[in-house]
Design brief:
The chain is an alpha/beta fold. The strands form 3 sheets. Strands 3-4-7-8-9-10-12-13 form an 8-stranded parallel β-barrel, surrounded by 5 helices. Strands 5-6-11 form a 3-stranded antiparallel beta sheet, with no helix packed on it. A hairpin with a 2-residue loop joins strand 1 and strand 2. Helix 5 packs parallel to helix 6, helix 7 packs parallel to helix 8 and helix 9 runs parallel beside helix 10. The two termini are 36 Å apart. Its cofactor is FMN. It catalyses: (S)-dihydroorotate + NAD(+) = orotate + NADH + H(+); (S)-dihydroorotate + a quinone = orotate + a quinol.
Length: 361
């Protein structure tokens, strides 16, 4: 009820101004002694049935915040206090870049969706490193989403991901290779099998050097687009699985505009939110079946409720992420979803969230 009133105010503001206002509020919150602990006591849902372990990492619950909110890695301690099981920052590129021209973010309230064409606006990995060194690491896992600068040719794109991985390796618990945003021209071409094979080879080679240097093996996940054909998705997953990528995030935003009703429906950019829900669930199920459940999946796309999350978990997702849902449901979304998940586990007489993974695949 409180957030519905605040949302009516925020939704009257330009979306990026509202986001900037939110970021400033989170910075104030995390700089106030004791405030993040207080929020965590309000928002956290602590129950052993929600704990999930993947890649040797313990996730206190399966509900994470996707990349795109904390683009510069400056407010993740505050976000961690909102009850999430993990937080992902970025997308971060080697050099700072301003992103695409304004306006570039649009709300579609009739569709419970967003369209963005942000273009990886961020302060670069060196600035992120300074922030990660300065801020206290939260008690939950931290993911770092990596991209390439828009003016880096695809032929040498691996060097951008290698730079990001090398610079930020000590600070993340897992890393995401973002080759599926529709807002950087030509980026999705890196999903083509030949390009993907070389890209993964180069990145995993750098990871091997970093494992030796830091004596820590950190998982690397690949984030895929929902606009791939089933055949192309199959090829990508087979390559990733054979090359021992640690996991898949399904999915990024879509270019599809089917069955929308909002005035901004024809804006260019990636569509996220409710219209993406079924497509991303179908992708999760296909990946789970293809890999026989042996390649962990993070499910993202159109998750607003515990039922939405549970559907993706039963389709094969070990963990899920929200973004657009938080814009519409508010900062308590992780708490709500986790409480709803516990009720669904009880209904199905399951003793842990892991028991539900893949039941409907």
């Amino acid at each position: 009820m409180i957030y519905s009133s605040l949302r009516s105010v925020l939704f009257k503001m330009n979306p990026e101004i509202a986001h900037d206002w939110t970021i400033r509020s989170l910075k104030l919150m995390q700089s106030t002694p004791g405030m993040t602990s207080l929020y965590h006591s309000w928002m956290g849902v602590r129950d052993a049935r929600l704990i999930s372990k993947r890649w040797g990492i313990t996730f206190p619950n399966p509900v994470g915040l996707a990349a795109g909110f904390d683009k510069h890695a400056t407010v993740y301690p505050a976000l961690a206090s909102l009850g999430f099981g993990f937080v992902e920052v970025g997308t971060l590129t080697p050099r700072p870049q301003p992103g695409n021209p304004l306006p570039r973010l649009f709300r579609l309230p009739e569709d419970q969706a967003l369209i963005n064409r942000m273009g990886f606006n961020n302060h670069g990995v060196e600035q992120a490193k300074m922030s990660l060194e300065r801020l206290k690491k939260p008690s939950i896992p931290l993911g770092i989403n990596l991209g390439k600068n828009k003016d880096t040719p695809n032929q040498i794109a691996a060097s951008d991901y290698q730079k990001g991985l090398s610079t930020l390796y000590p600070y993340g618990d897992y890393f995401v290779i973002n080759i599926s945003s529709p807002n950087t021209q030509g980026l999705r071409d890196l999903q083509h099998v030949e390009s993907l094979q070389q890209l993964i080879t180069d990145i995993l080679s750098t990871r091997s050097q970093l494992v030796e240097k830091y004596q820590q093996h950190k998982p690397i996940l690949v984030k895929v687009a929902p606009d791939l054909s089933k055949e192309a998705l199959t090829d990508i997953i087979q390559v990733a699985h054979q090359m021992k990528v640690d996991g898949i995030i399904a999915t990024n935003t879509t270019l599809s505009r089917d069955h929308l009703h909002s005035q901004h429906q024809q804006e260019t950019g990636g569509l996220s939110g409710r219209p993406l829900s079924q497509r991303s669930t179908d992708f999760i199920r296909h990946i789970y079946q293809l890999t026989q459940g042996n390649l962990p999946i993070m499910g993202v796309g159109g998750i607003f409720t515990g039922t939405d999350a549970y559907e993706k978990i039963r389709a094969g997702a070990s963990l899920i992420q929200v973004y657009t849902g938080m814009m519409y449901r508010g900062p308590s979304i992780a708490k709500f979803i986790n409480q709803e998940l516990l009720a669904l586990l009880e209904k199905d007489q399951l003793s842990s969230i892991d028991e539900a993974v893949g039941l409907d695949a």
